[in-house]
From TrEMBL, chain B:
Family: Belongs to the CDC50/LEM3 family.
Annotated region (Disordered), positions in chain: 1-23
Superkingdom: Eukaryota
Main location: membrane
Keyword annotations of the record: Membrane, Transmembrane, Transmembrane helix
Stretches assigned to coiled coil: none
A single cellular component GO annotation: Golgi apparatus
Keyword Transmembrane in annotation: yes
Name used for this protein in its record: ALA-interacting subunit
One Pfam family linked to the record: CDC50
Localization per Swiss-Prot or TrEMBL: Membrane
Amino acid sequence: MSSRIKEMMRVATARLGGEQSPRGGTSQAGRAEASRTARLGGGGGSLRRQPQPQAPTVRTIYCNDREANAPVGYKGNSVSTTKYSVLTFLPKGLFEQFRRVANLYFLMISILSTTPISPVHPVTNVVPLSLVLLVSLIKEAFEDWKRFQNDMSINNAHVDVLQGQKWESAPWKRLQVGDIVRIKQDTYFPSDLLFLSSTNPDGVCYIETANLDGETNLKIRKALEKTWDCVIPEKASEFKGEIQCEQPNNSLYTFTGNLIVDKQTIPISPNQILLRGCSLRNTEYIVAAVIFTGHETKVMMNSMNVPSKRSTLEKKLDKLILALFATLFTMCVIGAIGSGFMWEVHNRALSRWSEMEVLCSAYRFCGVFINEKYFYLGLRGRVEDQFNPKNRFVVTILTMFTLITLYSTIIPISLYVSIEMIKFIQCAKFINNDLNMYHAESNTPALARTSNLNEELGQVEYIFSDKTGTLTRNLMEFFKCSIGGEIYGTGITEIEKGGAERAGVKIDDDEGKRSATAVHEKGFNFDDARIMRGAWRNEPNPDACVQFCRCLAICHTVLPEGEETPEKITYQAASPDEAALVAAAKNFGFFFYRRTPTTVLVRESHVERMGSIQDVAYEILNVLEFNSTRKRQSVVCRFPNGKLVLYCKGADNVIFERLADGNHDIKKTSREHLEQFGSAGLRTLCLAYRDLSREQYESWNEKFVQAKSSLRDRDKKLDEVAELIEKDLILIGCTAIEDKLQEGVPACIETLSAAGIKIWVLTGDKMETAINIAYACSLVNNDTKQFIITSETDAIRDAEDRGDPVEIARVIKDSVKQSLRSYLEEAHRSLRSTPGRKLAFIIDGRCLMYALDPALRVNLLGLSLICQSVVCCRVSPLQKAQVASLVRKGARKITLSIGDGANDVSMIQAAHVGIGISGQEGMQAVMASDFAIAQFRYLTDLLLVHGRWSYLRLCKVITYFFYKNLTFTLTQFWFTFQTGFSGQRFYDDWFQSLYNVIFTALPVIMVGLFDKDVSASLSKKYPQLYQEGIRNTFFRWKVIAVWGFFAFYQSIVFYYFTAAASQHGHGSSGKILGQWDVSTMAFTCVVVTVNLRLLMSCNSITRWHYFSVAGSIAAWFLFIFIYSAIMTSFDRQENVYFVIYVLMSTFFFYLTLMLAPVIALFGDFLYLSLQRWLFPYDYQVIQEMHKDDPHEYSMIHLPERSHLSPEEARSYAISMLPRENSKHTGFAFDSPGYESFFASQQGVGVPHKPWDVARRASMKQQRQQQHTGRS
Amino acid sequence: MDSSNAAGTSNGGSGDGDPAAAARRNTKMPKYSKFTQQELPACKPILTPKWVVSVFFLVGVIFVPVGVVSLLAARDVVEIIDRYDDACVPVNMTDNKLGYIQNETISKECTRTLTVTKDMKQPIFVYYQLDNFYQNHRRYVKSRNDAQLRDYKKANQTTSCEPERTTADGKPIVPCGLIAWSLFNDTYIFNRGNENLTVDKKDISWKSDREHKFAKNVYPSNFQNGGLIGGAKLDSSIPLSDQEDLIVWMRTAALPTFRKLYGRIYVDLKENDTITVKLDNNYNTYSFGGKKKLVLSTATWLGGKNDFLGFAYLIVGGLCIFLAFAFTLLYVIKPRKLGDHNYLSWNRHPAGR
């Protein structure tokens, strides 16, 4: 079911992303405008709207009254995303095909070839063109059929509709405007709905908008009070409201309308609107009225076709085709001039016989001419324009067209369709089926959503990665801690694993090998029996442990939910870090199970007496909240016995500053531990406490209350007051939370860097978090020189305090400008002095906004391109896209974006290649992407293996196509010189028409599918090989020129070697061969040679290669045997009748057939041998290194048997870890409220505020009571 | 739908039956095949020195003998070529060759004397060779109608025969078209001393042409009846399939210089024999400056006098053997360990990217 629903969401393809993508200036501006209004409105949770331009008409909907709505003729709810219908398929499909220049060109040639100026029969061009069109149309039809089936499954999904007084199930497509529907939990809204009532009290329902914006947190919608009672069908059927609202539009966050019920007009806000594409959560069911259907829903109005991306290689291919056109044109001009004008030169030369003799003979050799003196051409009297010697100019022009038709084969007509076929199979069969990219846990294979960009994957130089969900799992797990100078927790992080692997130690992390005491649950992944479940009381420092646990259990803003047992309870926290800490306290024996507005209840298993369990209520007197300036959070609580304690947790530097004197040992060891955690990529927090006397507290509390009630600068005053009490703290210890990286991320990043790919992290997170992850992913390490541009500086803060927005902007801009300039200089300096040094550039979104200013853009780009890694934090989706297109357009490098959420959509679409992380909820990114993979680490396979191979293969295919058509056409060209430039064809019509589509078609596709320079494992073992793609080694003009040169050489060989044959009698009969004998011989040589040449350029030859090459040559012989044995009844010349048998009766034929290909390939072979020996490509060296390796099958993995027991192996591995301490201590904490950062920007949703915690706690209690009261 | 719930319950309870089997059914795991995993067994040819040298050597070893044999064959052929177009113009008309050839009152008879340079074994092939004659011109090549030639019922089919389709009064010409119209019409009579050397004109065309392209029941009609006479006339009582000169002529040549078989002489000629050729110099090559030559030649299994193939084989073969040595030398002078790390670009320029 769920997978089908995901499929359904495909209709909403472009959604938000389509709007955000910076394709046109107007849409960008529109977007910015929209978000600004939304932010203004959404600030305090109340929704104020900017006045919207009213549509000329207002939509009036009569709820529950189909007859009344009928006259208006609203569209139905069925959606169609197909491109064609049965009727339009042929015209529209053909039109699409002829938008391709090559196809249009061949259409024109085909038309030309039906006129008398054509030397070739129309069949020559019509046959290949129709074959190509046929294949393309079949593909189009197939794809459209799949779209159609998808639409059908969506349209036929069922929903409950009110019929009379009953709910009846009906398919989505039957839904009409004004219908009343019932939506059950976890199902999707079939259209845009007006929310009427819910089974929840207060007419509230929760919706998930992951498909719209990627936000996984639930949003609240509230029905109008007037309609709350429509829950049961009887009531609902009585509901006869009239909705007057705006016409359908694409603005997701606005809605204007009124509900008129009982002559009462109630305004409707977006808070009552449920959009198609969202789903209902945590609510049994709701009742709603349909307002917009089908293509008029907001999500569909937003959907536009995802812009189809073309690969850089294909763009370069266009240039090659242009070059071919130029060559064609030159050839035709030469021929045309020859036909019309050479004769005049010749004549004039004759008149000045003496000095021009040499020149004359040259012209004579060339032949020439349209002249009556060639009586056998019958040029006297009335002659058609084409040959009329009286009008040479017309002759020249017409000959030009003649030659264009004759040489049309220089443009490889089947190239595009072959490439499409190759890419399609590469995607459908190789990428989608790669077992190395199949993620078993989420049951997700890789998915290529477009087949246009395979080879682009082989040339990526910049990767823009989202953090959450892409690099990390967005799981915060309590992993280690340090209490009183002792480290607890024995896990190994991904980063350590990566480091160990680099150092050559292999660590197995199978779940089965973990020790029995390890506990793994949500937010807690900890393995140390010493302090679990109260075991800490046997530790040397039990008091510290008690304080530690209490601090964890009390100092937070978490709300417990669900049954109050340790197993069932879930914690609702503004940040996952907090939930993890509370979960840790629970596992250590301090189970926080209830919060009232004033107290925190903790079930302590322990304390004075062994084994006893005791519920303790701590009274929370004050909460000093967390914010990014304070970087700490404190609570003041009163113990049941009246003791007052302040618990504080926060960043190491702020806590250490506020510690009481003394106890240096524990401070020192704690600091060391912090550094150790930091280097392991863990997020650290320090815990401290302070006992307060009653007097101390009361005098402080007065100030606090005062500050809290002040009207001006309340936040600032609160901060100041907090400072007064958060001092003289006693350090308890520190916690280390693992922001769990996706599996294999550090190793993958390592490999990608070695491949010459630069990875940028673009995240909405805070700077600390982002830097921490950069450390974790080894993008940044101790040796890295960091350039940080942040808006969190004193100067900017001062400006903000003054509050003048213009002033703030100026200050930020100046500081950004200055730092960019100085950093750029510094970077250059550092590059000169220590070339190997890694540089990293870190910037936050606010500064980035100014840095992207056209004036500073150059500096920004300059600096970022020097740095090996770039981290952008707190960036908005739009900025992500801007950064991607900055590099794409500014630096003209090939870029790739990878992300998992809706906020990555714009970035995914802005980069050359967009990759979505699949297998999770929220399909938005995947829908906008070109490829979807389940894990970041699969990028290695996708880029280094599939991308690289695709690139190599396509380069080979394209250059080969170029070569084979050039060779073929040039033989024609040489012949033209000896036919008096008349444009006589050398080959029979059918030879020419089948050359591309039969005799040389299949082998090149085999190469496009199967050619491998080195195996997949070697591709990953030597990531540097990837640089050949980045540098575009295989598709340069130089490479093409080499192929071109050999095409030239070979064509001369084929033409002159076979033409020489016609001079003398052959065989003992003394009979003479005619023109068609010569051309058939030449064609045989061409077919044999180009097929063999392909074999020569293969790196690996499978049996498919043999079959196809031998098959192609055999196909030619088979064809010619049959073709020359029959006479057709059509009115055509029987030029090649019996030709092959005549040829085969002479020895000459066999000798030539052996000689010409060998001489033709001689040059190529010589070149390849020399090139390989003197200037080997990297892949060739690697081939040589591994030439004796046995054939690899990736599936065969022999399990490595270790003689150590799992525990031994594990502890050994730990002991082998590189223990390098980092200067980085790893502080990172998601600031509460951040989660809804984007939501608040977009003006919907109710942001959770930490200070709300008490109020929320009280509200929840009321609700629970109501519940219990009702039941 | 809610995956976390589902996971929770399935962990707790064992009522799901066989979860592994269910998983196997629902899995989207791609099936393994060598094709999709791109692990098809393949041979991976690498141009190692061994291969390069052996290939060159092998080609050389094969080609040189073939070249020698073909060259020897070509050497056995004796060929006598006599250009007669200029020589047959009377001395007083050398300035107006065109006038000479177009004036029907002047006798075109001409006598040439050839000396046999070497013994010639029968059969001796008589060819005529034309230079600068574009039988491959587009207008010329297509100016024929094959249907007409092979079916008497289709005599009216003269499409594509422009401009020699019909006579002035609209009757179809058989054979129509420029090719037939411009049929070569010089004739040769050979004498050695007083002995007449008969020229056998049978079987000078390819059998397939004779039997299938030119029918036995199609007779020339209206041929060369117009104001302009292009070339030879045909005896309208002889079917086309027996008009071998026409058949030969109509197998158009590939290049503007070509030979056509005229006939065979089944007499051995001795060295220094003198042969008198009495020829009718009818054909007009003067207007376009073409040459006419008479060729007497013997043939071997490979055909006429054609050194080209032999030399080509010999040169290529020799070159290959030379290259085999050259490459051996190259590998000695500029050795490179196969698969040497140092040749990898990132090892060559460690600082660079």
